[in-house]
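pasting for ref
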Amino acid sequence: MKNYCLDALAPLVFRGGKPFGAQSDTEDILFPFPSSAAGLIRSQVMWQKQWGFEQEHEGRGQLTHQQVQELQQIATQGPFLVRYEANNQITVLVPKPADALYFKDPKHSEKIKLMRLAPQGIANKEECGCDLPRDLLPVKMVADVKGKPQGGAAYWCLNDSLRWQAGEELSFNEVQQHGAQTLSIETRTHVALDDVSFAASEGKLFQTAAYDLGHQAKAKHGGWQEQHYGFLIRTTQELPDSLVRFGGEGRLSRLTTAQLQGDEFKVSSQLVEDIKQQGGLRLTLLTPAIFANGWLPGWLDQTTLEGVLPHTNIKVKLRAVAADRWLPVSGWDLNQHKPKAMRKAVAAGAVYWFECCSDDLDNIHQIAFQSISDQEQDKLDGFGIVSVAAWQKK
């Protein structure tokens, strides 16, 4: 796939599924969904080919059925958050894995520890139990820690995320330094204009919240930070560098071909051997996924939790899941000129642990950095991109 970077020239608006109101805050803005990136790429292709401008209906361009089908077949992945470093290097960031927690060290109040969650059985099933469906294993901390979870980096460096999934131990400071805690959000107040006089309508005010990805001011008037953020979109389509509109309010961004320093999306050569030795694997969502059965993939049997991994012939059995709250996914259908129906998506960062039921694992590489969503169109849109790693089945 080809890599493209999106450098925002203004704060970008990405609203959630809540009704539009006069007030706006940080809860009204969500990280852009894969469908937003897919729509951007396809609209650029449509513009290059001048589709929809030959025929118009009620002032709107129209696409033929064949053109719609061709646009929908364009595969995209992303958007992934990226950080532009001072040396022109681009660092890819992904959401924090759901099996990682930040805890304050009770012995050292200033120190925060990074704790791992993992599937573990119940020691005494006669005295205690859980309401997990279909005998799924509970996900618990691998070590006992007193205290409450703390805040930390919401986005991890992709390299740190892959190391964590491979079983390496990382420090909280390491993750904080390489990742990003939050994205700066700007709130603007707008006025409604009278259609006749073009003057501001009295009392009609509304607000928008937007991601401010540009250079941020240093504390105490110390100038501007050298780093700033943007988005990475991967696609099979060849695109020229251009100015594009991304998100709400039609704000501009610059789309350019990305020159990544290394192959961040490379699969480990030891993956097959590691999974064979450990007997299991884990999939971590890098983008939200949409499944027919909510949190449960449709390619798994709802009774036995067994199925075949997408893009492979490997039979697996689901053993445990760690996931945050579901996300509402909607949007605007440019072809039908109407809102899309709301669907529930599994949040990025969710982890699925599987037990391998097949001996032949040679094509496990085919699922790495690919989509595991149920519907083919959701796969093409980039929902459910995963990274894969070995898991020690106990």
